[in-house]
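Many groups now describe folds with learned vocabularies. In that spirit, our science desk offers one protein's residues alongside their backbone shape tokens.
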Amino acid sequence: IKDRYFEQALEENVTVTTYREGAASLRRFLNRLDSFLQWLSFIVLLMGALSLAASTRAFLKTRELQVAIYRSLGMLPAEVFRIYAYLSLTLGVLSGITGSLLGAGLPVLLAPLVNEVLAASLPVQLDFGFSVTGFSIGAALALLLTVVMNLQPI
């Protein structure tokens, strides 16, 4: 097809490309988009971890009287630390699992709506699925950041 219209295209200053020739630029665009979205999700996760550390610090500041009472009743510093570490880690793990479930499950739930909205502009249907790998990575990063950011203020 390209050869048939090539001469006419040269005369009219029209560029004729096949899908194979255009695929390289599309692939490059999708790779850049993927990289951007990975960095964006990492930054959002980091901001959440910083927010968690700040809220833990504020929570502990309001509980200084309780810590003093625990200490005056004879609790060892390690026991007080353990109480607040378990509290913080439980909250972090629950938040991480919830966030990972939302992040991995929400696209599956919204797929029909997205496909309906984009049906006019896209010639294909998008296929969304639950990613066990994505869920696992999100939960592991949330747990790691919870440990790093929460135990520091305690």
In short: The chain has a mean pLDDT of 78.
